[in-house]
Amino acid sequence: MAPKGRFASIFGPFRLIWLSIEIFYDTAKEAIRRDGLAALGHPRRIQDVAVAKLLSKTSDGFIAYEDTTTVPSLVKTAEGKILELGPGPGNQIHRYDQSLVEFIYAIEPNPNFKDDIAAKVKNHDLQDRYKLISCGVEGSDILRREGITEGSVDTVLSIQVLCAVEDVRMVMREVWKLLRPGGKFVFWEHGRSKDAVTAVTQACWNPAWSTLVGCHMNRDILTDILAAGEWENPGDVERPDDPHSCLPRTWGVLIKKA
């Protein structure tokens, strides 16, 4: 008989997918009620609203889970001029060590998180040192207007974000360019399992998960991170063996080679 952990890993994602289906259904109904059938011509807009509702609704649960992991200590290492990728509803805002923060630029292409983030920034008195920018890391013209240029950033923070971007390799190349020599890429991500059975499970769930939850289960994210450029300490990356998890994590604080 397979261990209990195996069954939990196979069927565990269904709970969040089902919640996503309910939220997508309600969001589509609201859009049709407001804009008529023309709303169905903008599926990406409906998806962005639904994903934002999902992540906002589950924010407290994600924060509680991350509190049991290395995430709080990772975020506290961010310092200087910080670029946070995909803050979503702002789950990391309370974790920064404000004595180390010069300024935080949070880049988020989904515009539906702005109210959540504004409230958390105000609660933690970061109004003068936090700016939400509606773009992805590939929006170089927008970033340049904010003074974010090649070699200008001290820390890039990525907590469960690379699973959701369109092109991990391209994003990581941009991240590496923006970091100054000696700058830090701080990350906690999930990717493809090394366990064969779990990898098959990920492949089966991924179409629904990527559409409804908004991220991919089975990307080889660590390979793309390490291939972005020269790092001083690639051996410091942590990738514990977690064969039953459909979301096996990897993390580290990589230093851009001077």
Give an overview in words.
Pfam families: Methyltransf_11 (PF08241). This is Methyltransferase type 11 domain-containing protein. Residues 83-187 form the Methyltransferase type domain. GO terms for molecular function: S-adenosylmethionine-dependent methyltransferase activity. InterPro entries: Methyltransf_11, SAM-dependent_MTases_sf, Thiol_S-MT. The protein has 258 residues and is of the alpha/beta class. Helices cover 42% and strands 17% of the residues. The chain has ten helices and six strands. The protein has helices at 4-11, 13-35, 43-57, 59-66, 71-75, 114-123, 140-145, 168-178, 196-212, 221-226, and strands spanning 80-85, 101-107, 130-133, 153-159, 179-190, 249-255. Strands 3-2-1-4-5-6 form a six-stranded mixed beta sheet. Strand 2, helix 6 (114-123) and strand 3 (130-133) form a beta-alpha-beta unit. The longest helix has 23 residues, at 13-35. It is globular. The mean pLDDT is 94.
